[in-house]
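re the bet — no i am not wrong, look at it urself. input seq straight from the record:
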Amino acid sequence: MLFMLLLAACGGRDTPGTPGVAADPTGSSPPAASPDPAPPAASLPSPVVIPPPSGPPGAAGLVSNFGSSKLQIAAGDGLWFIDAPAAGESTIGGLVMVSDGRTNPPLAPAPPDTVVTLNGVTLARALVNGAPSDQFFTVDPAGPQPTIGDDGYLHLTATSASLGATRTLNLPCPFPVGVGSSPGAGSSLSGAASVTLDWAAPLPTAQPLGPAFPTVSLLALDPASGAVAAVVDARPVSQGALQATLTVHPRPAGSAYVAEARYPHDGIFFFDGNTGGYCGRTTRIAFAP
């Protein structure tokens, strides 16, 4: 009897509740605790998209030459295919030197009737100090534009009727390489401190008399003409590197930028007398003004 009185005094049966939380005398449940807010998602940089290689084919062969030693033909600084020439540029840049092979040493200019072709396109005499050179030839930006052949080669031929001589130089070109960038192609570099170029495998390095390393450059285009107005930054690429960073310097309002990677054929080229050279490629990425 005493037990029943004590139980009545304590309010009857125990009300189930959360341990350590006093029971609500109204019989309602306590409000549920709000969950902790989820931490903000980490901001990850967008991955650099490296496009697949594009453009004319390359070749794995070696430099070769045929014909008369009366003519010497050389491209010692390389002939460079440009995938996106700016205004006033040709599709293949560089100088071809043609000499009279009968002299000693054979560095005298070839006869005035010498004609030089590159993959079937006749080259113009390069301007040296404002006058046509008697020894150097180049692609005329305003004329027909040659390109890398279907076999991946540049074929140079020099002919002189007065000498009764022809000399041919065959230069294998490197295979195209896909190049990506951060910021991406088409972005504006206004306010950017730098631009980084990336590629999936090491760029090739030529082995002529000494190694010819690949390079990267950032060019500024003239707002009115679209021609290359200045080299903003340029540097060699370390052997085996998979990226390179260029510094962006301010340019006049409206200037667009173009970044480029230049890389030579990775075969060994040799000089036969004074005949020899190599082919390289220039892959460009355009940015908005």
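see?? The longest strand covers residues 71-82. told u. also The mean pLDDT is 84. so pay up
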